[in-house]
Amino acid sequence: MRTQRRGGATRFKLCGRAAPLVLRMCGLSAGARNGGRRLELELVPRPGARRLLPQVPPHPHVTFCSHSTDFEVHRNWLAITHNLPLSQWYYEATSEWTLDYPPFFAWFEYALSHIAKYFDPKMLVIENLNYTSPATIFFQRFSVIFTDLLFIYAVRECCRCVNGKRAAKDILEKPTFILAVLLMWNFGLLIVDHIHFQYNGFLFGLMLLSVARLCQKRYLEGALLFAVLLHFKHIYVYVAPAYGIYLLRSYCFTASNADGSAKWRSFSFLRITLLGLIVCLVSALSLGPFIVLGQLPQVISRLFPFKRGLCHAYWAPNFWALYSAVDKALTVIGLKYNFLDPTKIPKASMTGGLVQEFQHTVLPSVTPLATLICTFISILPSVFCLWFKPQGPRGFLQCLVLCALSSFMFGWHVHEKAILLAILPLSLLSVQRAKDAGIYLILTTTGHFSLFPLLFTAPELPIKILLMLLFSVYSFSSLKSLYRREKPLLNWLETIYLIHLVPLEIFCEIVFPLTPWKLRFPFVPLLLTSVYCAVGIMYAWLKLYISVLSERTSARQKAE
Amino acid sequence: MEKWSLMTITVLLALTVRWTVSLGSYSGAGKPPMYGDYEAQRHWQEVTYNLPIRQWYFNTSDNNLLYWGLDYPPLTAYHSFLCAYVAKLINPDWIALHTSRGYESQSHKLFMRTTVFVADLLIYIPAVILYCCSLKETSTKKKVSSALCILLYPGLILIDHGHFQYNSVSLGFALWGVLCLSYDWDLLGSAAFCLALNYKQMELYHSLPFFCYLLGKCFKKGLKGKGLLLLIKLAGTVVASFAVCWLPFCTDVEQIMQDKVANIWCSLSVLIKIKNVVSPQTQLKLSFAVTFLSLLPTCIKLTVQPSLRGFKLTLVSCALSFFLFSFQVHEKSILLVSVPVCLIINEVPFMATWFLLVSTFSMLPLLLKDGLLLPYAVTTLAFLSACVASFAIFEKTSAKDLQLKPFSQSLRGYVSWFKLFPKIVRSLFLLSVTLMGVLSVMSAAVHPPQRFPDLFPVSVSSISCLHFLFFLVYFNVIILWDSKNSRNQKKVS
User: Fold this and answer.
1) Would you say residue A460 has pLDDT above 70?
2) Which of chain B's residues have a Cβ under 8 Å away from the Cβ of A137?
3) What Rg, from alpha-carbon coordinates, does chain B have?
4) Signal sequence span per UniProt (chain B) (predicted)?
């Protein structure tokens, strides 16, 4: 009997783990689809339709596929790293999509390029801008799928860390199974990686793996993985405070006082030296060659392009979206009632959408320094909380999510995709406590909804809606059944808020294009989506913050 | 988790796969002058919208029957008309008479794909879901996993959403028929089946089991009392639903029929001239005799002992006999066998999965021609893993699980290797899957030797044919050896 049940468990696990891969392949089957919108805000898909399958000659009418800008970005990087010596990687500027990821990612592209040459050597020519042959598409798409294996392994490790207190008989109701599905079927990751084009899968894999190592108390391994990750993609620096403080507090201090504060005498110099050594070694490996070449300033300037605007072309649903929306509203009202002088209003309205220095008209304009300070201040309480009220891995995860969310809320030029940085780690918390599950549902639903504009062609509309529904139905019903005995996960206000995403989507995608405003105010759907989602994400952020800060020690100890 | 949410997830998953496949290429894309089934459907929209109903089936100056003449029954024509009406609203160029021939564009493809998607969503998928919910003596989980496997069956998805056809409509109507019969709503069931028949004449493959089952039911009730009444009612329903479908053509019915029959004869003679082996008459008679003989036992059994289970199995075996032995069979007709097989997937999961895999494989040459290799590979793997995960097919290979117990009992004493049976079956399955995989890879990647340009298609079809013969024998065996005793035994145990 027991063996039989165990057999069932593995089978379903297989289902949960293998199926997303198949789905990812389905994404592949549709070829390189559109969705690129790194800088432009255009509603017309680019020409250049291509098909994937080599058996059939290309036919311009037939396929929906046109190449995404991120697709071209990565092709360009393949070409740069393949053809040029190290010293020119960060100087090459034939394409406008210059290399702006840290060196490890460049090395990763370098490694890929040596496989790519067996598929189609033409994709490795730097001058071949916007080159998309079927073999190129196949190779690029497949490389994403293949590197996703690391993500799958990381998910497996994370599932091991989740305590199985709520061991249910039914495999479908086990927290580990739910967690595996929530992570691997994550709507955002699926569309950003496999439909739009990026390599987030294995990067998040590295992050989750480092989280899992920290939970397993293999601190050095975790620190190493995170240091490597930082040199793959520097956006993860947003969550570095959580890592730093946690390692310092839980690893370098070997003991705590009874009230939870750090015992200063237990500080271990050996451990901090080890940590420092790891970070320095990894950094030396990554940046060392560029320091030797004297190119460090150039690399840094490529990595942190502060010339880009406060908001991305499509406003990521954060605090600044609300700020700009209020500013815009005030401008309109002011103009209508003649409080403002129309001649003094700068022409750079947000309708253009091109990334540029963006002037607010009524409210004071925001500088990079201001956003930096805001981010710092908003991160601070969570870090303090991690230091003064250590709660082991749970506290670390909470702090990690809060760091990610705070920087998403107040960061400079935030991409809407950055919300994944908060959503994925929060999945780990959501299967362990009902309160976090409620926040998770709000955050994922609004955060994923805010990714909709990434896919904007008509053939992609059903896909994004179906995948979103799939993920939402699963997350709601599985978490509901997991916390069946506790009070409802969402209150009525939150439920109403989430339900209204449906009419919003119908309005933006179906009703609005039919109205005459489409030509005069093309930005309205994006603006509405971004502002509406910003409210939800802001709310989830505050709610999580309050729940973390108000958590009492006794409850914590009980939980542990 | 609750049943409804699991079912919703299943349906959403099925829809996602369907739409993703539909992003791929279709039959005859960019291949003038004849294009493929996609153009055929578009052309029918053009014809039905622009010509008066009397001219739909006739060769006129505006309707060249040699260029994709309408060769399906009226319901298909009505469906085309409906689609054409919507097309007209969006872009009149798509269905303009004469000038729209061979029209292809992104938005038109989107439109055509959407029509298939909607038809599938409205007719086939609800039938499958309701059918799975109506299964008796099964847990919720089993119901959901049957629904998942049926909806993920790659053959139908690839042909409808990849190659481009509306099989899900006729098969969906047939499913509604089975569904109604399983609830004992005989009249509704026969009406639904008539609709299926009026959508595609190929549904005749299924007509014998329907007929035998209902006839058997009438016999059971006694031909003098209630049975006769039921028989009259059924006949009335069938006549009425046919009449409704054919009403607009009433004056020309005979002519249309004659036309079509003549067509069949013509094409037959062409076929046989090429073959030139046996005289046409003999060959026709031969094939008729073989089909008839292979159908006979199961049909008699069903008439004598009408049971729902027997009905489903007979649907399979009859359709398979037709597919194997009748003239002029298109490779896509295997779908007519596959859908009934889907219905018994919860009873004999191992064999059903095997059959469904082989049936998809048998269409490989067609799919390759359409450029659907990648969707084929991905959906087949997805289907296989769904079946393995939800039914644990490898653990269900014993004689009992394959419903072969009565058969093996009757053979006891003659054969002694039945202990090894599960292992043998499992290794046969693995062998056949490997063979199919290897052949799929070879036909996709390797150029055939110049002397045998048709090497791969021929070997694909001969291997599939061998499989199908084996399955025919298997299904006949379980139908014929399925006695009341065994069911009684089950109840006792």
Assistant:
1) yes
2) none
3) 23
4) 1-24
How distant is the Cα of A228 from the closest Cα of chain B, in angstroms?
34
Do A30 and B23 count as a contact with CB atoms less than 8 A apart?
Answer: yes
Least confident of A313-317, A467-471, B103-107, B412-416: B412-416
Confidence of residue B267 (pLDDT cuts 50, 70, 90): very low
User: What distance separates the 2 farthest-apart alpha carbons in chain B?
Assistant: 73
0.90 cut: is pTM over it? no
**pLDDT higher at B32 or A30:** B32
With CB atoms and an 8 Å threshold, state whether A56 touches B106: no
pLDDT of residue A520: 77
A193 CB-near residues (< 8 Å, 6+ apart): A24, A144, A148, A199, A200, A201
Q: What is the ipTM of this complex?
A: 0.88
Phi, psi (degrees; rounded to nearest 5) at B148: -60, -50
In whole angstroms, give the CA distance from residue A178 to residue A230: 29
Q: A-contacting residues of B 68-127, CB under 8 Å?
A: 104-107, 109-110, 117
C-beta of residue B382 within 8 angstroms of C-beta of residue A19: yes
* Band of pLDDT at residue A313, cut at 50, 70 and 90: low
pLDDT digits (tens, 9 = 90+) for B409-466: 777 656 666 667 788 888 999 999 999 999 999 998 888 888 887 888 888 888 888 8
Determine, for residues B374 and A28 on separate chains, whether the beta-carbon distance falls below 8 Å: yes
Q: A450 in helix, strand or coil?
A: coil
**Contact call for B23 and A53, based on CB within 8 A:** no
Whether B109 sits inside 8 A of A61 (CB atoms) is yes
Distance CA B236, CA B154 (A): 38
Is the alpha carbon torsion for A297, A302, A305, A308 positive or negative? positive
Q: Which two tokens mark B29? A: 């894309």
Q: How far is CA B372 from CA B20, B29, B444, B468, in A?
A: 12, 12, 11, 23
The answer to which of A400-414, B291-305, B386-400, B467-481 has the lowest mean pLDDT is: B386-400
Chain A partners of B375 at a C-beta cutoff of 8 Å? Answer: 26, 29
For residue B118, what is the nearest residue in chain A, using CA coordinates? A462
The residue whose two tokens read 């997805």 is B382
B384-388, Cβ contacts within 8 angstroms, sequence gap of 24 or more: B384/B353, B384/B357, B384/B433, B385/A14, B385/A15, B385/A18, B385/A19, B385/A22, B386/A15, B386/A19, B386/B145, B386/B148, B386/B149, B386/B152, B387/B149, B387/B345, B387/B349, B387/B353, B388/A11, B388/A14
List own/partner pairs for A296-305 with CB under 8 A and 24 or more apart. Answer: A298/A90, A298/A91, A299/A90, A299/A102, A299/A103, A302/A90, A302/A98, A302/A99, A302/A100, A303/A100, A303/A101, A303/A102, A303/A234, A304/A234, A305/A100
How many percent of chain B have pLDDT more than 70?
Answer: 88
